[in-house]
Design a protein that fits this description.
The structure is a homotrimer of 294-residue chains. With 294 residues, chain A is α/β, with parallel strands linked by helices. The first copy, chain A, is 46% helix and 15% strand. Chain A is built from 10 helices and 11 strands. Chains in contact: A-B, A-C, B-C.
């Protein structure tokens, strides 16, 4: 059950716009027990800055448990007046997050698929719409859903290692990035880069990702923490209220689009992922991953 | 009459979205005889790649005949399961395509103008909405409608010769690029570059066009064919279904806008082009071209 | 009262689109006396080019008087067939314009705030929607509303002095740039640059502003006038009608958005600016400016 002290997820952050009028049934309800141990949260109250470290080995995949913990942790910080900004980084070497957990999308019930997808939506709505300053300190590869998390922050710093890559590579797996992944991507890199990168399912090595603006800055790994803190300080120097209203003005249109089509988007996902051809693709992909490991 | 084996143009490619619900009267009907000799189509069934070579000297202008042949050829490939991608290039030296044929817009009946414009729309709807991978191998200058064809492909490779130029130069002729030319342009180069380039009616030398993304890559002329084949192979490595759905997601909004305003757009064109002032501009322009030649 | 010869502001330029159907009460009426001495207008009838020089020391702030004079001057040129283009520059050293006059937003009546905001809207609607070629010759710093004026022109040339900066820095003052400032900014620099710059309230030194396209060109101060004239000549080489229709096609959507929400936007501004917390921020800011001076 929910750990004591975790507020119910019924308070909508201001930046969500119309989300506040959504029936509560659409919100992520922590219906299932989960272990509160996939994300380390540290809050420096003197600075007003929290760090969320993903520590779900081997690859920080976005399972239902991970997403639920992520949303609850973010919500707690959002409601904590002592916290004005969050830095997201990984405690697992060489990987930021591998994206959506394929085992949640393979061989499960349609109810499970729907619950999982609602959690993915919830993660994005909360992160892209957060009133806090959000900085991604990308210290490893970040494909698909991992890339979406980075794209949803206010600023992206990546370790300059060309072995680390980032991108929305869904097409490589035979699946399609949802429209709100696409909207978030277009808002960062523009229509043309997004069109090409999404169709090719490209994973861009850090230097290439920096070149066309997918990440804002590259640093040596040993300077990542310090750089993230410096960027956060720069953003926190602005008055919160003006910064939040400005952020909301920039992101509201894209957030509203998902809020308006949320149930439809869940149905689309469930129908698509339940197809035998897609299930087969995913099984083949998982086999490939297993062989790679052994 | 229509050559045997050419299917009627009633099958809408998936990517058109709402086009499928359009009354058939809006589609290009091959009402008139045409000679099937302005475009060379070669299909390599082992690769699944066709090449369409424009050979309508002197400048591959987009006449009604050319456009009709283009649409029928593309439709045949679209319906041919052995074909997954098309490379567009020119068999005429130094010119890719000079754009819309001005003789079709000058001194003709309003019925003719309407039929011509419908064919221009049809070309764009089929090309921009194609489910196949489309690569423009731009081996010469490509103004106006020629530029639109290149912009409508998935990828543009241009010969690096600075004497070859590309752009939507309609304003130079005293006419205005239609909104869907503009939408296609904005999707490639962004709002600001499009705003400036369209107002100035700029023709950009290949190196400049490459600099701001109007073309994706420059190559020496002797490497064009090989590079186009390599790019095509890269795009065909992706699963068709995922790539097609992704392409449709990126282009649907702009395709739907023309489909929703198609008749209105024809009427606008006919009214505009029938104006005596515009007819006069075009006559002066044609005189200039004739003098240049002699 | 209005100087003789100034036409009433009831004629809407073509590029406004739906503005023409607005009730006349929404238009800026020159209800109050103003001195016609904040802007020097020189028209070279042989070239068809006017220069508007801002000379309202110390910092060319956009007071109600300044804005009223600006709109009337621009309207006169718009209706003068001998004028096809306008160059905007400053007669005050080191500053193009400091933006909205804070004294108009502090300690005044709600009626005054509404009148002032209507004048700001009017300035932008007329400038962004102008049928003339508009070139900003930015010979000094240009924050906030000053930046908006530059962004609303067709082309921006800035003196290459890195001490001169430009940007929409509203967030620094604890206020939020209105949606149409944002729309204009996004149309020039794209969504990502705008999102970051607006949230940080960044003032970009000229070289940085040039790097990401906020200004089109940098020149040494002594070449500014000549360069502006050359750019103007390039744009005037195009047929007016085609250029105007193209400009309108690019800007109509964003202009229409304000026209459709004009009264609402005024109410939002009045409510926001009347808040005690905002008034306090502005008073502190003004105190700071006064101390800086002495």
């Amino acid at each position: 059950s929910v750990p004591p002290g975790v507020p119910p997820l019924c308070h909508q952050p201001l930046a969500w716009g119309r989300a506040a009028r959504q029936p509560p049934g659409l919100l992520l309800a922590p219906r299932r027990p989960f272990s509160n141990n996939k994300i380390l949260v540290e809050l420096d109250e003197s600075l007003g800055v929290a760090t969320m470290k993903f520590k779900s080995p081997p690859v920080n995949s976005l399972s239902l448990d991970f997403l639920t913990e992520f949303c609850i942790s973010l919500e707690k910080l959002e409601n904590n007046r002592a916290c004005r900004g969050v830095i997201f980084t990984s405690a697992v070497p060489r990987i930021f997050s591998s994206g959506l957990d394929i085992t949640e999308m393979c061989g499960k019930s349609t109810e499970h698929y729907a619950e999982f997808w609602k959690a993915v939506q919830e993660m994005w709505l909360r992160l892209y719409g957060s009133n806090m300053v959000t900085v991604a300190a990308v210290n490893g590869s970040s494909p698909a859903g991992g890339c979406l998390m980075a794209l949803s922050c206010d600023y992206r710093i990546m370790v300059e290692n060309p072995k680390f890559s980032i991108g929305l590579n869904e097409a490589q797996l035979g699946i399609v990035a949802p429209f709100w992944f696409k909207d978030t991507f277009v808002n960062v890199v523009g229509h043309r880069v997004a069109e090409r990168s999404l169709q090719l399912g490209s994973l861009h090595p850090a230097p290439e990702a920096h070149k066309f603006g997918l990440v804002d800055e590259l640093v040596p790994e040993e300077e990542l923490r310090e750089k993230a803190a410096a960027v956060m300080a720069q953003w926190l120097a602005l008055p919160d209220h003006a910064r939040q209203l400005t952020k909301n003005m920039m992101r509201k249109k894209v957030l509203d689009r998902l809020v308006a089509h949320r149930e439809e988007d869940i149905q689309n996902f469930v129908t698509f992922i339940s197809k035998e051809s897609i299930q087969k693709s995913l099984r083949i992909y998982m086999e490939m991953l297993k062989k790679k490991k052994s």
